[in-house]
Write a structure and sequence with these properties.
The protein is mainly α and 21 residues long. It contains one helix and no strands.
């Protein structure tokens, strides 16, 4: 979770969410 202010975060959020956990 690095780019929290990036428009791509909206797509990476769900993917990183599972990766971080």
């Amino acid at each position: 979770r690095v780019s929290n202010i990036s428009p791509l975060s909206a797509v990476l959020e769900p993917s990183q969410e599972a990766a971080v956990k």
